[in-house]
Amino acid sequence: MISQRANFDWMLKDLADGVPGVQQIVVLSADGLRIARHGGDPDTADRVAAACAGLQSLAGAVAGEIHVSDGRMRMVIIEVDGGYFYLMAAGANAYLAVLSDMRTEPGMMSTRMRDLVLRIGSHLTSPPRRDGQTV
Description:
two-stranded antiparallel ribbon; Beta-Lactamase; 28% strand; 135 residues
């Protein structure tokens, strides 16, 4: 488990170092639990993970209204005063979230996130849980 944590740290640091303006990266489960993080503090990462669970559910509901869509959320980008928020599906029951300032170019960030997910998507998974326990 320690080597997997070290791999997450390295992979997330590589993404942060490769795109200007990244403030925090969070890997989370579909039910909003933080799996890994880079940058920022743990409490912020936990709040971001919890908020992302609702956002991915909302995005999936909207995607279901698009007639040619399979109803799965792939990526959400939100621009706010001072920065951007990115959320991307990243493996079975897992998501990759990034908070950045205005220096980040959204096209570059989405490409780098997609490249990371393609390279390591099988490692960015969270097994389903029932009653708080992994099944």
